[in-house]
Amino acid sequence: MPTEDLALTEGSVDPDPIRQFHLWHAEAGGPAEVAVATASAEGEPAVRMVLLKAADERGFAFYTNHGSAKARDLTANPRASLLFFWAPDRQVRVAGTVEVVDAGEADDYWRSRPRGSQLGAWASRQSEVIDGRATLERRLAVATERFPGDVPRPPFWGGFRVLPETVEFWHHRDDRLHDRLRYRRAGAGWVIERLSP
pLDDT tens digit string along 52-75? Predict the structure, then answer.
């Protein structure tokens, strides 16, 4: 289908950016892989890929070890940007403040994870320097022996939610005349603005 047939117009998008995100994600298919950009308390930027686990009216949630580099950044400087990219011609950018996902919701998601992923979370001290793969495998063996049945959620593991202040939908157009529509939070609703490419 020609790019022009997929033009992004103010009249073609949902008035709610979360519903519009779900439309694009459904068309793309597959998991919602997202780049998460953070900055330390000193302003040092970092970015990494994670899997989005929830997107609803509250925001965009993902899970991690709370001792990880990204969790330390988000604790010290609770703002983040997200970037979703669906080749060849769509991306969504989200920016906003960050909150910790409550324990009950984290417990619910934890129980849905495969046992191997649960044990791996206990074994890994994420972002910590280790002396080799054997150290990680020893820790995994300890966790496997410690939890022969259900694996509880570690106290150091949970989620973060980005509360969007802006959500930008970008669609490729020929000659670099791309469509960019930005939803900007305005009270309880959203204002849609077209940005120059």
Answer: 999 999 999 999 999 999 999 999
Which residues, listed in sequence order, are joined to residue 37 by a DSSP beta bridge?
47, 81
Closest CA to 21 of 162, 159, 178: 162
Other CB atoms within 10 Å distance of the CB of residue 13: 18
Structural domain boundaries enclosing 32: 3-194
CATH of the domain at 67: 2.30.110.10
Give the end-to-end CA distance of the chain in Å, rounded to a whole number: 22
* 192: Cβ contacts below 8 Å, ≥ 6 apart: 10, 13, 15, 181, 182, 183, 184
Question: One of 111, 173, 176, 184 is an active-site residue; which one?
Answer: 176
Concerning whether 176 is annotated as a catalytic residue, the answer is yes
What is the C-alpha separation between 40 and 48, in angstroms, rounded?
Answer: 14
Instruction: Please count the residues of the chain.
Output: 197
Give ∠ CA 29-31-35 in degrees, rounded to 5: 115
CB 73 within 8 A of CB 27: no
SS3 12: coil
Q: For residue 181, which of 169, 163, 166 has the smallest C-alpha distance?
A: 169
Structural domain tally of the chain? 1
Task: Please tell me the pTM assigned to this model.
Answer: 0.93
Tokens 């009270």 -> residue: 187
